[in-house]
Amino acid sequence: MKRHLLDQTPEEWEMGSGPSYQRRVLGQWVFEKRASSFAQMTSLPLSLRRELADRYELRSLRRARVRQNGDGVQKLLWELPGGDAVESVLIPAESDAALGRLTLCLSSQVGCAYRCAFCASGLLGFRRNLSSGEIVEQLLQAEEAAGRRVDNLVFMGMGEPLANWDSLLRSLRLLTAPWGFGLSPRRITVSTSGLVPEIRRLAEEPLAVGLAISLHAASDALRSRLMPVNRKHPLPLLLDACDEYSRKKRQRITLEYILLAGVNDSDDDAADLSKISRRLRAKINLIPYNRVDSLPWDRPDPARVDRFESLLQKSGCRVTVRTRKGEEIFAACGQLRLATLPDSSPMRI
User: Fold this and answer.
1) Which residues form the Radical SAM core domain (predicted)?
2) Which domain holds residue 37?
3) Choosing from 105, 242, 317, 333, which is the catalytic residue?
Protein backbone atom coordinates (compact mmCIF):
# COMPACT_ATOMS: atom_id res chain seq x y z
CA MET A 1 0.00 0.00 0.00
CA LYS A 2 1.32 3.43 -0.93
CA ARG A 3 2.18 5.91 1.79
CA HIS A 4 0.97 9.51 1.75
CA LEU A 5 3.90 11.78 0.92
CA LEU A 6 2.87 14.17 3.72
CA ASP A 7 3.01 11.40 6.31
CA GLN A 8 6.71 12.24 6.20
CA THR A 9 8.73 15.43 6.32
CA PRO A 10 11.00 16.20 3.34
CA GLU A 11 14.15 14.80 4.94
CA GLU A 12 12.33 11.47 5.30
CA TRP A 13 11.20 11.20 1.65
CA GLU A 14 12.69 8.18 -0.11
CA MET A 15 14.12 9.60 -3.34
CA GLY A 16 16.93 7.28 -4.31
CA SER A 17 20.48 8.41 -4.97
CA GLY A 18 19.79 11.40 -7.20
CA PRO A 19 21.15 14.92 -6.66
CA SER A 20 20.20 16.51 -3.34
CA TYR A 21 18.56 19.51 -5.03
CA GLN A 22 15.76 17.23 -6.28
CA ARG A 23 14.39 17.00 -2.74
CA ARG A 24 14.11 20.80 -2.66
CA VAL A 25 12.42 20.84 -6.07
CA LEU A 26 9.91 18.21 -4.94
CA GLY A 27 9.15 20.34 -1.90
CA GLN A 28 8.50 23.36 -4.12
CA TRP A 29 6.02 21.40 -6.20
CA VAL A 30 4.21 20.11 -3.11
CA PHE A 31 4.22 23.13 -0.81
CA GLU A 32 4.37 26.16 -3.11
CA LYS A 33 2.72 25.00 -6.31
CA ARG A 34 0.29 22.61 -4.58
CA ALA A 35 0.79 19.91 -7.24
CA SER A 36 -1.83 17.17 -7.03
CA SER A 37 0.12 14.52 -8.98
CA PHE A 38 3.72 13.60 -9.61
CA ALA A 39 3.07 13.83 -13.36
CA GLN A 40 2.75 17.61 -12.98
CA MET A 41 6.30 17.91 -11.63
CA THR A 42 7.94 18.34 -15.00
CA SER A 43 11.19 19.80 -13.62
CA LEU A 44 11.94 16.40 -12.05
CA PRO A 45 13.23 13.52 -14.18
CA LEU A 46 10.53 11.24 -15.55
CA SER A 47 12.17 8.21 -13.94
CA LEU A 48 12.04 9.86 -10.51
CA ARG A 49 8.42 10.92 -10.97
CA ARG A 50 7.50 7.33 -11.80
CA GLU A 51 9.45 6.04 -8.81
CA LEU A 52 7.71 8.50 -6.48
CA ALA A 53 4.28 7.66 -7.92
CA ASP A 54 4.92 3.97 -7.26
CA ARG A 55 5.91 4.67 -3.66
CA TYR A 56 3.72 7.59 -2.57
CA GLU A 57 0.33 9.20 -3.07
CA LEU A 58 -0.44 12.91 -2.98
CA ARG A 59 -4.23 12.64 -2.79
CA SER A 60 -6.06 10.00 -0.75
CA LEU A 61 -9.32 11.84 0.07
CA ARG A 62 -12.31 11.80 -2.25
CA ARG A 63 -14.66 14.75 -2.09
CA ALA A 64 -17.92 12.87 -1.44
CA ARG A 65 -20.26 15.76 -0.74
CA VAL A 66 -20.26 19.56 -0.63
CA ARG A 67 -22.88 21.85 0.86
CA GLN A 68 -22.81 25.63 0.69
CA ASN A 69 -25.14 28.20 2.20
CA GLY A 70 -25.92 31.81 1.36
CA ASP A 71 -23.11 33.10 3.60
CA GLY A 72 -20.52 31.24 1.55
CA VAL A 73 -19.86 28.59 4.22
CA GLN A 74 -18.92 25.28 2.61
CA LYS A 75 -19.15 21.93 4.41
CA LEU A 76 -16.93 19.32 2.73
CA LEU A 77 -17.34 15.60 3.36
CA TRP A 78 -14.25 13.52 2.54
CA GLU A 79 -14.30 9.78 1.92
CA LEU A 80 -11.17 8.02 3.16
CA PRO A 81 -9.70 4.77 1.85
CA GLY A 82 -11.83 2.00 3.31
CA GLY A 83 -15.03 4.05 3.35
CA ASP A 84 -14.71 6.12 6.54
CA ALA A 85 -15.55 9.81 6.30
CA VAL A 86 -14.45 13.09 7.87
CA GLU A 87 -15.45 16.72 7.43
CA SER A 88 -13.92 20.15 6.89
CA VAL A 89 -15.64 23.53 6.88
CA LEU A 90 -14.61 26.61 4.88
CA ILE A 91 -15.75 29.79 6.63
CA PRO A 92 -15.37 33.17 4.89
CA ALA A 93 -15.10 36.41 6.82
CA GLU A 94 -18.48 38.01 7.40
CA SER A 95 -17.52 41.29 5.76
CA ASP A 96 -16.71 39.90 2.31
CA ALA A 97 -17.19 36.24 1.51
CA ALA A 98 -15.39 36.59 -1.83
CA LEU A 99 -12.32 38.59 -0.84
CA GLY A 100 -12.07 38.55 2.97
CA ARG A 101 -10.20 36.16 5.22
CA LEU A 102 -10.94 32.48 4.73
CA THR A 103 -10.78 30.05 7.64
CA LEU A 104 -10.67 26.27 7.35
CA CYS A 105 -11.86 24.01 10.16
CA LEU A 106 -9.92 20.72 10.04
CA SER A 107 -10.69 17.26 11.38
CA SER A 108 -8.01 15.23 13.17
CA GLN A 109 -9.77 11.91 13.82
CA VAL A 110 -12.50 9.73 12.35
CA GLY A 111 -15.18 10.06 15.00
CA CYS A 112 -14.31 10.90 18.59
CA ALA A 113 -13.80 8.90 21.76
CA TYR A 114 -14.66 11.69 24.20
CA ARG A 115 -18.44 11.67 23.76
CA CYS A 116 -19.34 15.21 24.76
CA ALA A 117 -23.08 15.06 25.40
CA PHE A 118 -24.01 17.77 22.88
CA CYS A 119 -21.68 16.84 20.00
CA ALA A 120 -22.52 14.90 16.83
CA SER A 121 -18.93 13.72 16.23
CA GLY A 122 -18.93 11.10 18.95
CA LEU A 123 -22.38 9.62 18.33
CA LEU A 124 -21.00 6.81 16.18
CA GLY A 125 -17.86 6.29 18.23
CA PHE A 126 -14.15 6.55 17.50
CA ARG A 127 -12.68 4.78 14.48
CA ARG A 128 -9.10 5.92 14.06
CA ASN A 129 -6.63 8.79 13.99
CA LEU A 130 -5.98 10.64 10.77
CA SER A 131 -2.42 10.66 9.48
CA SER A 132 -0.61 13.96 8.99
CA GLY A 133 -1.08 13.53 5.23
CA GLU A 134 -4.84 13.14 5.62
CA ILE A 135 -4.98 16.20 7.85
CA VAL A 136 -2.91 18.45 5.58
CA GLU A 137 -4.64 17.19 2.45
CA GLN A 138 -7.88 18.67 3.77
CA LEU A 139 -6.21 22.07 3.38
CA LEU A 140 -5.00 21.33 -0.15
CA GLN A 141 -8.32 20.04 -1.42
CA ALA A 142 -10.32 22.73 0.39
CA GLU A 143 -8.22 25.38 -1.35
CA GLU A 144 -8.94 23.69 -4.67
CA ALA A 145 -12.67 23.76 -3.86
CA ALA A 146 -12.52 27.42 -2.81
CA GLY A 147 -10.31 28.51 -5.71
CA ARG A 148 -8.05 30.47 -3.34
CA ARG A 149 -5.62 30.10 -0.46
CA VAL A 150 -6.82 29.68 3.13
CA ASP A 151 -5.76 32.36 5.62
CA ASN A 152 -6.47 30.72 8.99
CA LEU A 153 -6.62 27.11 10.20
CA VAL A 154 -8.51 25.82 13.21
CA PHE A 155 -8.27 22.24 14.47
CA MET A 156 -11.90 22.27 15.59
CA GLY A 157 -13.46 19.64 13.36
CA MET A 158 -14.09 15.98 14.13
CA GLY A 159 -11.97 14.42 16.82
CA GLU A 160 -9.71 15.52 19.68
CA PRO A 161 -6.49 16.90 18.12
CA LEU A 162 -4.35 16.41 21.23
CA ALA A 163 -5.31 12.72 21.35
CA ASN A 164 -3.67 12.35 17.91
CA TRP A 165 -0.42 13.84 19.10
CA ASP A 166 2.12 12.53 16.57
CA SER A 167 0.02 13.39 13.51
CA LEU A 168 -0.89 16.79 14.96
CA LEU A 169 2.73 17.74 15.59
CA ARG A 170 3.88 16.55 12.17
CA SER A 171 1.00 18.45 10.55
CA LEU A 172 1.89 21.63 12.42
CA ARG A 173 5.51 21.34 11.31
CA LEU A 174 4.51 20.78 7.68
CA LEU A 175 2.11 23.71 7.83
CA THR A 176 4.43 26.24 9.49
CA ALA A 177 8.00 25.37 8.46
CA PRO A 178 9.77 27.69 6.00
CA TRP A 179 10.47 24.64 3.84
CA GLY A 180 6.78 23.65 4.11
CA PHE A 181 3.62 25.67 3.65
CA GLY A 182 5.06 28.57 5.61
CA LEU A 183 1.89 29.53 7.51
CA SER A 184 2.31 31.71 10.57
CA PRO A 185 1.67 29.72 13.78
CA ARG A 186 -0.41 32.72 14.92
CA ARG A 187 -2.90 31.86 12.17
CA ILE A 188 -3.42 28.32 13.49
CA THR A 189 -5.56 27.38 16.49
CA VAL A 190 -5.71 23.97 18.15
CA SER A 191 -8.88 23.22 20.09
CA THR A 192 -9.06 20.67 22.88
CA SER A 193 -11.70 19.31 25.22
CA GLY A 194 -9.12 19.58 27.99
CA LEU A 195 -6.37 16.94 27.87
CA VAL A 196 -4.17 18.39 30.60
CA PRO A 197 -0.88 16.48 30.00
CA GLU A 198 -0.99 17.24 26.28
CA ILE A 199 -1.71 20.94 26.88
CA ARG A 200 1.45 21.03 29.00
CA ARG A 201 3.37 19.18 26.26
CA LEU A 202 2.15 21.65 23.67
CA ALA A 203 3.31 24.50 25.88
CA GLU A 204 6.86 23.08 25.61
CA GLU A 205 6.78 22.94 21.81
CA PRO A 206 8.47 25.84 19.98
CA LEU A 207 5.39 26.59 17.85
CA ALA A 208 3.26 29.36 19.33
CA VAL A 209 -0.06 28.20 17.90
CA GLY A 210 -3.30 29.44 19.40
CA LEU A 211 -5.07 27.31 21.98
CA ALA A 212 -8.84 27.08 22.35
CA ILE A 213 -10.45 25.23 25.25
CA SER A 214 -13.84 23.62 24.68
CA LEU A 215 -15.08 24.63 28.11
CA HIS A 216 -18.90 24.65 27.84
CA ALA A 217 -19.43 24.65 31.61
CA ALA A 218 -17.88 26.69 34.40
CA SER A 219 -18.34 24.20 37.25
CA ASP A 220 -16.87 20.74 37.74
CA ALA A 221 -20.26 19.13 38.35
CA LEU A 222 -21.89 20.42 35.16
CA ARG A 223 -18.79 19.98 33.02
CA SER A 224 -18.44 16.36 34.14
CA ARG A 225 -22.05 15.77 33.15
CA LEU A 226 -21.63 17.36 29.72
CA MET A 227 -18.03 16.32 29.04
CA PRO A 228 -16.82 13.00 30.50
CA VAL A 229 -13.19 14.10 29.94
CA ASN A 230 -13.63 16.42 32.92
CA ARG A 231 -13.83 13.43 35.26
CA LYS A 232 -10.22 12.62 34.41
CA HIS A 233 -9.00 16.19 33.98
CA PRO A 234 -11.12 18.37 36.31
CA LEU A 235 -11.33 22.13 36.04
CA PRO A 236 -8.65 23.06 38.60
CA LEU A 237 -6.04 20.97 36.75
CA LEU A 238 -7.24 22.25 33.37
CA LEU A 239 -7.04 25.89 34.44
CA ASP A 240 -3.53 25.39 35.83
CA ALA A 241 -2.43 23.93 32.48
CA CYS A 242 -4.05 26.85 30.65
CA ASP A 243 -2.18 29.29 32.91
CA GLU A 244 1.07 27.57 31.98
CA TYR A 245 0.32 27.62 28.26
CA SER A 246 -0.67 31.27 28.24
CA ARG A 247 2.40 32.27 30.25
CA LYS A 248 4.89 30.35 28.11
CA LYS A 249 3.38 31.33 24.75
CA ARG A 250 2.55 34.90 25.82
CA GLN A 251 -0.81 34.85 24.13
CA ARG A 252 -4.45 34.73 25.11
CA ILE A 253 -6.33 31.47 25.24
CA THR A 254 -9.85 31.27 23.83
CA LEU A 255 -12.65 29.68 25.84
CA GLU A 256 -15.27 28.07 23.61
CA TYR A 257 -18.66 27.97 25.31
CA ILE A 258 -21.68 26.38 23.65
CA LEU A 259 -24.90 27.84 25.06
CA LEU A 260 -27.49 25.16 25.85
CA ALA A 261 -30.96 26.39 26.79
CA GLY A 262 -31.70 25.87 30.48
CA VAL A 263 -28.45 23.98 31.05
CA ASN A 264 -25.46 26.35 31.15
CA ASP A 265 -26.95 29.76 30.27
CA SER A 266 -28.06 31.14 33.66
CA ASP A 267 -26.83 34.34 35.30
CA ASP A 268 -24.88 32.21 37.78
CA ASP A 269 -23.22 30.35 34.89
CA ALA A 270 -22.18 33.70 33.41
CA ALA A 271 -20.69 34.77 36.75
CA ASP A 272 -18.70 31.52 37.06
CA LEU A 273 -17.48 31.78 33.48
CA SER A 274 -16.43 35.37 34.06
CA LYS A 275 -14.22 34.33 36.98
CA ILE A 276 -12.44 31.76 34.81
CA SER A 277 -11.99 34.19 31.93
CA ARG A 278 -10.58 36.92 34.15
CA ARG A 279 -8.21 34.51 35.87
CA LEU A 280 -6.81 33.33 32.53
CA ARG A 281 -7.21 36.70 30.78
CA ALA A 282 -8.91 34.61 28.12
CA LYS A 283 -11.24 35.56 25.32
CA ILE A 284 -14.70 33.97 25.36
CA ASN A 285 -16.42 32.72 22.23
CA LEU A 286 -20.10 32.11 22.89
CA ILE A 287 -21.70 29.61 20.51
CA PRO A 288 -25.50 29.30 20.47
CA TYR A 289 -26.09 25.58 20.00
CA ASN A 290 -26.51 24.10 16.52
CA ARG A 291 -29.40 21.67 16.91
CA VAL A 292 -28.66 17.95 16.36
CA ASP A 293 -31.83 15.95 15.68
CA SER A 294 -30.87 12.92 17.74
CA LEU A 295 -29.82 14.95 20.80
CA PRO A 296 -32.08 16.63 23.40
CA TRP A 297 -30.41 20.05 23.57
CA ASP A 298 -31.76 23.38 22.31
CA ARG A 299 -30.38 26.85 21.63
CA PRO A 300 -31.34 29.63 24.07
CA ASP A 301 -33.59 32.33 22.68
CA PRO A 302 -31.82 35.48 21.40
CA ALA A 303 -32.75 37.54 24.47
CA ARG A 304 -31.07 34.98 26.75
CA VAL A 305 -27.94 34.95 24.58
CA ASP A 306 -27.82 38.76 24.64
CA ARG A 307 -28.15 38.86 28.44
CA PHE A 308 -25.45 36.23 28.91
CA GLU A 309 -23.10 38.22 26.66
CA SER A 310 -23.97 41.46 28.44
CA LEU A 311 -23.24 40.02 31.89
CA LEU A 312 -19.82 38.86 30.72
CA GLN A 313 -19.01 42.21 29.14
CA LYS A 314 -20.05 44.12 32.25
CA SER A 315 -17.71 41.98 34.33
CA GLY A 316 -14.79 43.00 32.11
CA CYS A 317 -14.54 39.95 29.85
CA ARG A 318 -13.63 40.07 26.19
CA VAL A 319 -16.47 38.16 24.52
CA THR A 320 -17.84 37.48 21.05
CA VAL A 321 -20.93 35.58 19.95
CA ARG A 322 -20.42 33.29 16.99
CA THR A 323 -22.77 34.15 14.17
CA ARG A 324 -25.15 31.37 13.18
CA LYS A 325 -23.45 30.17 10.02
CA GLY A 326 -23.99 26.86 8.33
CA GLU A 327 -26.86 25.47 10.36
CA GLU A 328 -28.82 24.55 7.25
CA ILE A 329 -25.79 22.68 5.81
CA PHE A 330 -25.06 20.70 9.01
CA ALA A 331 -21.89 22.71 9.65
CA ALA A 332 -21.46 21.74 13.30
CA CYS A 333 -18.85 19.05 13.94
CA GLY A 334 -19.95 15.65 12.65
CA GLN A 335 -23.41 16.70 11.51
CA LEU A 336 -23.01 16.25 7.76
CA ARG A 337 -21.31 12.91 8.22
CA LEU A 338 -24.02 11.82 10.63
CA ALA A 339 -26.77 12.96 8.24
CA THR A 340 -25.12 10.99 5.42
CA LEU A 341 -24.86 7.72 7.32
CA PRO A 342 -27.74 5.29 7.74
CA ASP A 343 -28.61 4.60 11.37
CA SER A 344 -27.27 1.06 11.18
CA SER A 345 -23.92 2.00 9.65
CA PRO A 346 -20.84 2.08 11.89
CA MET A 347 -19.23 4.97 9.96
CA ARG A 348 -19.39 4.41 6.24
CA ILE A 349 -20.78 6.53 3.45
Assistant:
1) 98-328
2) 3-57
3) 333
